[in-house]
Amino acid sequence: MDHWFSGALIFIVLWWLIIFMVLPFGVRPSTDEEMEPGQEPGAPHKPMLWRKMAICTVITAVIWVIVYFISETGLISFRPD
Fold first, then answer.
1. Which of the pair, 11 or 6, is modelled with greater confidence?
2. Which helix (H) or strand (E) holds 23?
3. Which of 6-15, 23-32, 48-57 is least confident?
4. What average pLDDT does the segment 26-43 reach?
5. What CA–CA distance (Å, rounded) separates 15 from 11?
6. Alpha carbon distance 22, 56 (integer Å)
7. In whole angstroms, how far apart are CA 36 and each of 19, 27, 72?
8. H helix runs in the chain, sequence order
9. Residues of the chain above pLDDT 70, percent
C-alpha cells in the first residue's frame, strides 16, 4: 500500500470521527412558528452543515498533520522493525 493512500485513509477515518463530534454543536429545535407542515419536531432549525463540515475539515487537517509529523520523525513507529 502506498504511503499517500495510507495518509488519505487516516484522514477519512479522522474526518468521520470528528464530524460526529461536531454535529451536535449549536443545534436548537424549531419552534412552532418556524416549523413547516410535515416537519419532524426534533429536527434542528438551522443545522449549519456546511459550516460544520468546514470546521471538521480544519480540525481533521490539524490532527492529521500532527499524526504525520509523529510518524515521519519516528517519535512513534507504526511499522514493525
1. 11
2. none
3. 23-32
4. 78
5. 6
6. 7
7. 27, 18, 53
8. 3-22, 49-73
9. 94
Residue written as cell 407542515?
A: 37
Phi first, then psi: give them for residue 4, nearest 5 degrees: -70, -30
Q: Tell me what pLDDT residue 63 has.
A: 95
Q: What angle do CA 17, 23, 24 make, to 5 degrees?
A: 120
Provide CB contacts within 8 A for 56, sequence distance 6+: 15, 18, 19, 22
Q: Which residues of 21-41 are buried (b: 16+ CB within 10 A; e: fewer)?
A: ebbeeeeeebeeeeeeeeeee
pTM: 0.76
Residue 1 pLDDT level (bands cut at 50, 70, 90): very low
